[in-house]
Design a protein that fits this description.
- The complex is a heterodimer of chains A (about 450) and B (about 450).
- The longest helix of chain A has 18 residues, at about 115-130.
- With about 450 residues, chain A is an alpha+beta fold.
- Chain A is built from ten helices and 21 strands.
- Chain A is about 20% helix and about 40% strand.
- In chain A, strand 5 and strand 6 (about 175-185) form a beta hairpin.
- Chain A has helices spanning about 5-15, 70-80, 105-110, 115-130, 195-205, 225-240, 240-245, 305-315, 345-350, 400-405; strands spanning about 20-35, 40-55, 60-65, 135-150, 155-175, 175-185, 215-225, 265-270, 290-295, 300, 320, 330, 335-340, 355-360, 375-385, 390, 395-400, 410, 415-420, 425, 430-435.
- In chain A, strands 3-2-1-4-5-6 form a six-stranded antiparallel β-sheet. In chain A, strands 10-9-8-13-20-19 form a six-stranded mixed β-sheet, covered by helices on one side. In chain A, strands 7-14-15-17-21 form a five-stranded mixed barrel.
- Chain B is an alpha+beta fold.
- In chain B, about 20% of the residues lie in helices and about 40% in strands.
- Chain B is built from nine helices and 24 strands.
- Chain B has helices spanning about 5-15, 75-85, 115-130, 200-215, 230-245, 255-260, 315-320, 355-360, 410-415, and strands at about 20-35, 40-60, 60-65, 100-105, 135-155, 160-180, 180-190, 225-230, 275-280, 300-305, 305-310, 330, 340, 345, 365-375, 380-390, 395-400, 400-405, 415-420, 425, 430, 435-440, 440-445, 445-455.
- Classes of the chains: A alpha+beta (about 450), B alpha+beta (about 450).
- Strand 3 (about 60-65) of chain A pairs parallel with strand 2 (about 40-60) of chain B.
């Protein structure tokens, strides 16, 4: 049997499915890896696979495979799971116009391993010019992905996207004291802001030359863009998942339109930003991409939906379905954009008598994330005394609830930047968070 | 496996490549997965995955190619060798391991493959009903996964090894909500080839549901520095995070300063502290006969009588450090090269009863179960799923889940008592360099740590 989408769809219909969907994805990935300042490994990953969803007697069945030519087994496995599957509350979308979103770049597809090696080497050289003893691990990764979705309602969607990612992790060991610094960028094209990575890592090293003591107290805390992206965005956006809302697990449930946050705070989810790695013309079910405002001037605007959850909740899909080959679509945000404010980072620091700056919290994703709690050991952070950064802070936990904290903002930064190519955010200054320290 | 790529094709592809070393790994996995959220069965599905990879070493540089399509294996080998040659600028160094030809039989106790999907769903339906029937529980989450995996490993040195395993993993979680306040309690477990573990969770389901509701009324612990007592589950996570990762030689072998810190013979804990890692400990989720470089599994002493005596190696790190390979090179699946990983990691039992552990604690925290843990080598954090205050030598009120953090070098020294009740936890999956969740187990008795930083949430 042939393994093209149409054959699979016909096989499913012939077996009695009322609707069927085929999701096929093919990825060519080339990672280049440096370890301890030296080129260590070049890889290639050739990935391909097919997933099938069927609706049989009103229930959803699912199966996936990465074995070529597995079509008959695949359709049969999906049909077998359907009687136990969830009740279907969706119709696979018919063909529709999708927006033009720039996610493919021919130069990125053609990029040579040598130029990726050169990118990695320049990041290492930049960081080590600030601190010669820094040991750097760097990964530079190029990927080309083609996704195709076909369904029995006449929907046929396909696109190709490219991405290039570069990330540097530096380690500096002095006695039993270890400093970890790092930053990175990602884009659909070959344009990466390598200078910003170098500047950012240099700042991290300079601010950490001295250490400072911190006490257990409620203190003002400034999160840098990296700190916001790594510790706060996940617990925040989880509350906007339509699935969490529908299941009664989101603290924002029933609060659409309500002014939950500081009135200066606005955030959007947007799969249409040109050239960003989370962008795409349509989601993983074939629903056209769009910009979804989540918070406007402190008020909750919208929750995110895939088709099935939208059907259950009486809402519309927001184009927010994401899937891996082995799992069914689930709601997941694409690019997150937090609107900048009016206070410069310098002004923020100058305004704090005693407080902290957080670049990275270790273990921030553990604990009661659903409720919006975050807490973590300060892996990289600095102490502010009388408006000046006085040194690196260790052995302390910073904890809070993201929904509470965002209602008590001291200021929103004016300088926003992309972190990891998927989150665009300024620094955020919180009035007070709980700091637990050894002292 | 032989239906996709027979042995003679694999062995022929390994010949005539002009590299220092080449290996091929093929991986064929069939799995079932069920996910519940509240009353909804959100997902039920089957996955079949075939994939393979080639790893090549030339002049100290590595090339790695992974694929789903088995056609053209010889070409994949050529691609990996050419990548390795591009990288290589030194000398290849692999510790010597005797080539092995072996077929390892499957270890099964109660085979989940023999249980119809309807029966699996029936068992989970019951737990979901139990949790939802507890007054105050607003939602639940159940994830169940079982997978049968067959891996073929072949190397240019003449090894050809077939290994099979079955993993069964499940997590039950209950959420209680009152107004904007939400609390969750969960339980994770796993086993190597024994579905019976899944059939005995009725009591656990009720307990975690009731605990989630109780937590709504529980206060936060006051942040600060306390004497803490960890149950075997959380102490196992602590051992894994706080010490296990630092004993992985790939962090150390290229870092001269870390080598000085991690020098064998250095004292890390008091005389009573013994920490071991080994896939040769049988029948646990971290158990296997050969690692993903074909090195036989061992049982490695890491800390003996409080002193660092060993570390975990791949063939490359062992050669570079002039130590023996320990069989700890593991890959999550065919998409990844093997890296140095833990297997079954545990703190050996001491001789103190639980009553004696808490008897002289005036004010402390008793921490049970886990939400997660992570490490930066020097510092670690881990989250307790459940916590109680200890007051005047007695377990007192329930408090909300806490986060513990510390510095490895002081915290291991501060373990001042070990319980006599060692137990293994198999519910966790370990993550490193994007490879997650790798099946491991952690073990420990109850342990007591002086002066541990406790944060709220």
């Amino acid at each position: 049997m042939r393994s093209d989408p149409d054959s699979i769809l016909s096989a499913a219909r012939a077996s009695g499915a009322s609707q069927a969907e085929v999701y096929a994805v093919q990825t060519e990935e080339t990672p280049v890896r440096f370890e301890a300042n030296r080129l260590k490994e070049i890889s290639a990953r050739h990935t391909s696979g097919v997933a099938v969803r069927v609706i049989l007697d009103g229930r959803i069945g699912f199966a996936s495979s990465t074995r070529p030519g597995d079509v008959e087994d695949l359709v049969q496995a999906a049909m077998e799971t359907a009687p136990f599957g969830p009740e279907a509350h969706l119709d696979f979308p018919a063909d529709a116009a999708v927006p033009e979103v720039a996610v493919f770049d021919a130069a990125t597809e053609a990029l040579s391993a040598d130029s990726m090696i050169a990118t990695g080497q320049s990041l290492i050289d930049g960081a080590r010019s600030v601190e010669p003893e820094l040991l750097c691990d760097v990964s530079v990764r190029r990927a080309v992905t083609t996704a195709t979705i076909s369904n029995s309602n006449g929907g046929h969607f396909t696109y190709s996207g490219t991405s290039l990612m570069a990330w540097l992790h530096g380690t500096l060991v002095r006695g039993t004291d270890m400093l970890f610094v790092g930053d990175g960028d990602a884009s659909c094209s070959t344009v990466l802001d390598l200078d910003e990575i170098t500047r950012s890592v240099s700042r991290q090293i300079e601010h950490s030359r001295r250490t400072a003591e911190v006490r257990t107290a409620e203190l003002p805390v400034i999160f840098t863009p990296i700190g916001v992206a790594e510790a706060l965005v996940a617990p925040l956006t989880l509350a906007f998942s339509g699935r969490m809302v529908y299941q009664g697990q989101s603290p924002l449930g029933g609060r659409l339109g309500e002014e939950v946050y500081d009135t200066r705070f606005s955030v959007a989810e947007d799969a249409t930003v040109p050239g960003r790695v989370a962008s795409r013309p349509f989601d993983d079910e074939g629903v056209p991409s769009r910009r979804n405002p989540l918070v406007k001037n402190g008020a909750v605007q919208r929750f995110l939906y895939d088709l099935q959850t939208a059907g259950l909740a009486g809402a519309q899909s927001t184009g927010s379905a994401e899937r891996s080959l082995a799992t069914q679509p689930a709601i997941s945000p694409t690019s997150i954009l937090i609107e900048p404010g009016e206070t410069t980072f310098e002004q923020m620091v100058a305004g704090v008598r005693e407080g902290l700056i957080i670049e990275e919290l270790m273990g921030a994703g553990q604990g009661n994330v659903m409720g919006g709690d975050f807490s973590g050991n300060v892996l990289l952070g600095y102490k502010i005394e009388n408006g000046e950064i006085v040194g690196r802070v260790k052995d302390a936990i910073v904890a809070g609830n993201v929904h509470e904290a965002l209602s008590r903002l001291a200021a929103i930064g004016s300088e926003a930047r992309w972190v990891g190519g998927t989150i665009h955010t300024p620094p955020l200054w919180f009035e007070r968070l709980t700091v637990s320290a050894r002292a | 496996m032989s239906d996709v790529l027979p042995r003679d094709q694999v062995e022929s592809a390994l010949r005539g490549h002009n590299a220092d070393y080449v290996e091929v790994r093929l991986d064929d996995t069939s799995s079932s997965r069920l996910v519940y959220r509240g009353r909804e069965l959100e997902e039920i599905g089957r996955t079949r995955s075939f994939g393979g990879n080639v790893r090549a070493l030339v002049n100290g540089g590595w090339g790695f190619v992974s694929f789903n399509n088995p056609a053209g294996l010889k070409g994949r080998v050529a691609e990996a060798v050419s990548q390795a040659r591009h990288v290589g600028a030194g000398k290849s160094d692999l510790a010597r391991v005797e080539p092995v030809v072996d077929v390892v039989p499957l270890h099964i106790v109660n085979d989940p493959r023999g249980v119809p999907l309807a029966a699996k769903k029936g068992v989970l339906d019951r737990y979901n009903e139990t949790m939802l029937s507890v007054d105050g529980v607003t939602s639940t989450n159940i994830v169940y996964w079982d997978g049968h995996k067959r891996v073929v490993f072949a190397s240019s040195e003449g090894s050809y090894i077939e290994q099979e395993r079955i993993d069964v993993v499940s997590r039950l979680a209950a959420t209680a909500r009152r107004n904007g306040d939400m609390q969750q309690c969960s339980h994770s477990l796993g086993s190597l080839g024994d579905f019976a573990y899944i059939q005995e969770l009725g009591g656990t389901a009720r307990e975690i549901a009731e605990r989630a509701v109780e937590l709504l009324n529980a206060p936060y612990a006051k942040p600060g520095t306390y004497t803490v007592v960890l149950d075997p589950i959380l102490a196992g996570v602590f051992c894994h995070e706080a010490f296990g990762h630092l004993s992985e030689a790939d962090h150390v072998y290229e870092n001269d300063r870390l080598k000085e810190i991690m020098v064998l013979g250095r004292r890390f804990g008091q005389q009573h502290l013994n920490i071991v890692d080994g896939a040769a400990v049988p029948d646990l989720r971290g158990s296997f006969k050969y690692d993903d470089e074909g090195t036989p599994a061992t049982k490695a002493d890491l800390i003996r009588d409080g002193v660092l005596v060993g570390r975990l190696h791949s063939r490359e790190t062992a050669a570079r450090m002039g130590e023996k390979p320990t069989g700890n090179a593991r890959a999550l699946d065919y998409r990844f090269p093997p890296i140095v990983r833990m297997t079954n990691t545990y703190i050996e039992s001491g001789d103190t009863s639980f009553e004696d552990l808490i008897a002289d604690v005036a004010e402390g925290v008793y921490c049970k179960n886990w939400f997660g843990g992570t490490t930066s080598m020097e510092m670690f954090t881990f989250s307790a799923g459940e916590a109680y205050m200890i007051r005047n030598g007695k377990i007192a009120e329930l408090v909300r889940p806490v986060k513990l953090t510390g510095n490895l070098f002081t915290t291991l020294m501060n373990i001042d008592a070990l319980g006599n009740d060692m137990d293994f936890n198999q519910g966790g999956g370990c993550g490193k360099m994007g490879q997650m969740p790798l099946p491991v187990s952690n073990g420990s008795p109850h342990i007591r740590i002086r002066e541990c930083v406790v944060g709220e949430r």
